[in-house]
Amino acid sequence: MGRTTPLSHLLLSCLLLVDLGNLAQAEPIKIGLNYPRTGNYKDEGLELRRGALLAVDEINQAGGVLGKPLELLSKNTSSQADKAVSNVDYFANQDARMVFGGATSEEAIAAGQRARERGLLYFATLSYANEVTGLAGHRYLFRESNSAWMSARVLGEYLSWHMPRQRYHYIIVDDAWGRSMENALRLATNSTDRARHGRTALPSGLVRREQYLAALNKAARSEADILVLVLLGENLQRSMRMVHNMGLKQRTQIIVPNLTKSVVQQAGPLVMEGVIGTEAWTWNLPSQDNIAQGQQFVERYISDYQEYPGSTSASAYSIVKQWADAVQRTQSLDSERLISTLEDHSYQLLKGQQQWRAFDHQNVQSIYAVRVRKRDDVMLDPFKQHYFDIIHHMDGDQAAPSQDEWQQERGEELQLR
């Protein structure tokens, strides 16, 4: 009993070919990816697209969604909100049923609003400002990435335990995320006194060398114990190379609240070693926590790209898989029905338990404080990309703002609309 004959194998193969043939002939279901192919965050954009393509391919190999194949449409935003908005219109005109992506909070807020006007769900990535699911939040906007509050709380707890009563200096990019992250981390580290804990605000977009230099010289003169760089993408890479060349790491602990694999990869582990920040996911977490689907994702990514996936790829991959799962559970592409299906839905995919929280549509998940490993240790790894040691973690419910805190930020509008 239970043994299959050669004829059985042949019949199964024929059925599989028929199913795949039917899938290929069916009208595809389109989804749209907003991603920065050029500009300050182009390295993160590459990771977003890779993660999305991997999810689409897996879903199609498993039979698609509602018996139809998924098709990924992608458009460059150059990390500009106006381009992200026009891309949403393009996707909607191409009959896309969902849009996701972005590398700045301004993109997420503007594109999310436009998606709502076009009746489409928008899932934000790399958009850390509290406003995304706070003051600017609405029913059609979901955020998979963590908020500034979540990063600040895990960092604040770690720093208060291990580096108490230190003098801070902040260098921020003057945009929604930069201001949000600075305010949250000041509260979490008791560094709200700006006379003692100074700052420099750099303009959004790419910054000139003399602006970096003036900001870093000011930080050096402050004699701060901890230098917080609220920067991402090429801005962070360039400033970190200058920090390294100036020798600031020898006398100051560098904090980068939101680290990504691509930043360490592009700046180099020697430049980044010892830097402390946060990550929502690292490639070795699934193996440590015995998460089978996470391990399969890592193995597939390595097979396709000959390198480890970062949290950026994991975020895009998870969004596509979660949206497709909601469509399958709902048996519908209707945005209103999908919102109800997603709200308060708990799941496990690439890490431990996660939830799409109903009252603000924030993805609640564990957050990790990480330190960039020494270059010599990184070089021992087969891919030379084992960049992070996890030094602290916090459960999502503890890290995310409570409903009372969320409502205080919202003011009179106490529900998503």
TrEMBL record:
Keyword Transcription attached: no
Highest taxon in the source lineage: Bacteria
Region feature (Disordered): 398-417
Segment forming the signal sequence: 1-26
Family note: Belongs to the leucine-binding protein family.
Pfam family for this entry, one: Peripla_BP_6
InterPro entries: BCAA_transport, Leu-bd, Peripla_BP_I
Domain Leucine-binding protein: 28-374
Keywords: Signal
Ranges of compositional bias, category Basic and acidic residues: 407-417
Protein name per the record: Amino acid/amide ABC transporter substrate-binding protein, HAAT family
